[in-house]
Amino acid sequence: MNTFDAPTIEYFTVSPILIVLGVATLGVLIEAFVPRGRRYLVQVVLSLVGLLAAIVTTVIVFNRLNPGAKTPKGGKVVAMGALAADGPALFCWLLILVLAVLSVLLFAERHLEGGVTSFAGQAAALPGTEAEREASTKGLEHTEVFPLLMFAVAGMLMFPAAIVLLAVCVALEVLSLPLYLLCGLARRRRLLSQEAAMKYFLLGAFSSGFFVYGIALVYGYSGSMEFAEIAEAVSAQTGSEGLLLGGIALMAVGLLFKVGAVPFHNWTPDVYQGAPTAVTAFMAASTKVAAFGALLRLFYVAFGANRTEWLPMIWIVAILTMVVGSVLALTQTDIKRLLAYSSIAHAGFILTGFLGIRSLNVVPGGSLTGISAVLFYLTTYAFTTIAAFALVTVVRDGGGEATSLARWQGLGKESPLVAGLFAFLLLAMAGIPLTSGFTGKWAVFAAALSAGAWPVVIVAVLASAVAAYFYVKVIVLMFFSEPIGEGPSVTNPSVLTGSVIAVGVAATLLLGIVPGSLIDLLGRVGVFIR
Amino acid sequence: MTLTWYLVLAAILFTIGAVGVLVRRNAIVVFMCVELMLNSVNLTLVTFARAHGTVDGQIMAFFVMVVAAAEVVVGLAIIMSIYRTRRSASVDDANLLKY
Q: Helix or strand or coil: residue A229?
């Protein structure tokens, strides 16, 4: 007879994920049992408390990894070999959780829409009908967005830590499905929002189809779902090469879609424009962290042994992503689309850092590895972009957010503070010294150069120059153009959005001036374990 | 009969699904084509599980089914809301977001 062996799970080590999932489930119950009037407050407080608890446990777990402190952190395989709690994974957790706190604050903003959140009052009510007007006059709002956010965060936490293909696949879906729904829940411009949700959903499902077929082929090649055993099979070169290469390519499609790399970038501008801006901010910042974490782990750990086979593919994708993102951004007339193309270009810069893969024994002590360079860039970019989208929410006219670039003309006269902060964030994205964008770019370029990817770095520098042009164009437009008509107006946000902007700008400035402490931390993050 | 034929069949089904996603216009049909891709993946997974003599692939197939079911829930909700708004489920009609 078979006996049942209870699985051993290191509950404390995985507690950040469990807390977030628990809070999400509790949030669903709150929707069912708490009276409508009190749900907003309960959901917001519960989400924030849950995320802060998860942050605290992550920090404790991180400090316990290796008490020696100065040496690179180790790590351990937990949950019956499904997840790896190592330095890079815990760093991603911390970053994602902090970004999630900021996103909850953005989601909870009620001041801008005059007392309700920026999500649809009743998503089931058709746009332009009596039912929608009724929902609007009653002041209804969907507080389900908070549990959805928490589910997405749980998926994002699992994604970069998963070391079994099964867990990777489940994490990918857990992070994607709530995001599809969140994209369709805007209060204003609902047709655009629904369309964005459908495009994101259909293309996302299409790409995850490729991803799981890739998993099937890699499983067929190696006979195992575990990264460590796949790595062994890859270095022993057992089985048919075609299966492996096909599997790698198909899995890359799924992951590169999530990070918005060319040629899988087409959804990005549409979804970023149509989704509620708070959701866009969350997606742009956190999804990139989770997806790049997973991409790095999969390719470095599982497929690291035959990197000569797939590195050329990443070279080409990185070059295309930077060039297409920067060039297409030149022609944009909508600020959210412009930031979307800029995020595509940034995905290319991060991929450049990804090319810094080297065997550990050739990395001189103290220099940034590909992993830490990418994590550094992700940190700088995430805070800059979340603050930029938060600023987009406060520039408004009668129809809600004024996202058209023409409406941003002369913003510097209307509100020097908003225009000044936005200009600063754009300079950071362009990579001007004394901002975090410069140190981030320097880190990924240095990592790529030391691994011999100099042609990509040259393209990256040229693409940065092109990108700087359109960022400066927006700054000139804000400060040196006359406003059209009444010009844009800036609605004063509540302390929620205000603090997101403050944190984002402060991180952008501090990481630009004194990046040392973060670089030290990343130096101790160490490598992926198997 | 060798296991290769099952893999070939799965690859053909996957290709039909992928081409269907690209050429069909109705969101529901596009979505069904995605489901066809996922099911061809299941066939591949169980074939490899048989070839390797391990159950990992079969377990994965179950999870792919769960994922597909969850996608149906989310996807049909989105497509329904689009259809009720526009009286059309054509992916070509949803063209407000461009350039």
A: helix
Lowest-confidence pick of A25-29, A96-100, A232-236: A232-236
Chain B residue with minimum CA distance to A329: B99
Q: DSSP states of A249-307 as a string?
A: HHHHHHHHHHHT-TTS-THHHHHHHHS-HHHHHHIIIIIHHHHHHHHHHIIIIISGGGH
Rounded to a whole number of angstroms, the distance between the first and last alpha carbons of chain B is: 52
Scanning every residue of chain B, which has its alpha carbon at the shortest distance from the alpha carbon of A179?
Answer: B74
Residue A400 is encoded by which pair of tokens?
């809600």
Please report the DSSP string for A378-426 in residue order. HHHHHHHHHHHHHHHHHEEETTEE--BGGGGTTHHHH-HHHHHHHHHHH
Instruction: Specify the DSSP class assigned to residue A85.
Output: E
Mutate to test the interface with B, among A142, A165, A173 (most CBs of B within 10 A): A173
What are the phi and psi torsion angles at A264 (to 5°)? -110, 35
* pLDDT for position A57: 96
Determine the Cα angle at A125 with ends A120 and A129, to 5°: 110
Q: At what angle do helices A370-394 and A87-107 cross, to 10 degrees?
A: 0
Out of B52, B54, B85, the one facing A127 most closely (by C-beta) is B85
Q: Rounded to a whole number, what is the distance in Å from the CA of B9 to chain A's nearest CA? A: 14
Residue bearing the bigger pLDDT, A150 or B88: A150
Strands A83-86 and A395-397: unpaired
Q: What is the residue-averaged pLDDT of chain B?
A: 92
Checking if the pLDDT of B94 tops 80, the result is no
The secondary structure element, H or E, covering residue A47 is: helix A36-65
Would you state the pLDDT for residue B1?
Answer: 63
Q: State the pLDDT at residue A70.
A: 52
Q: What is the pLDDT of residue A334?
A: 93
Is residue A364 predicted with pLDDT exceeding 70?
A: no
pLDDT at position A511: 93
Calculate how close chain B gets to A483, using CA atoms only, in Å. 24
User: Is B43's pLDDT higher than 70?
Assistant: yes
Q: Closest residue of B to A123, CA-based?
A: B81
**Residue of chain A with shortest Cα separation from B10:** A213
The reply to whether residue B78 touches residue A273, judged by beta carbons under 8 angstroms, is: no
The chain A residues in contact with chain B (CB within 8 A) are 123-124, 126-127, 165-166, 169-170, 173, 177, 180-181, 184, 190-192, 194-199, 201-202, 205-206, 208-210, 212-213, 215-217, 219-220, 223-225, 269-270, 273-274, 331, 337
User: What's the CA gap between A155 and A16, in Å, rounded?
Assistant: 12
Could you tell me how many residues make up chain A? 530
Contact A180 B85 (CB under 8 A): no
pLDDT (0 to 100) of residue A399: 79
At residue B24 the predicted structure's pLDDT band, cuts being 50, 70 and 90, is very high
d(CA B64, CA A212): 8
**Distance of residue A423 Cα from the nearest chain B Cα, in angstroms:** 24
CA B80-B81-B84 angle, to 5 degrees, is 85
Give the total residue count for chain B: 99
Q: Indicate the residue of B7, B78, B95 with minimum beta-carbon distance to A201.
A: B78
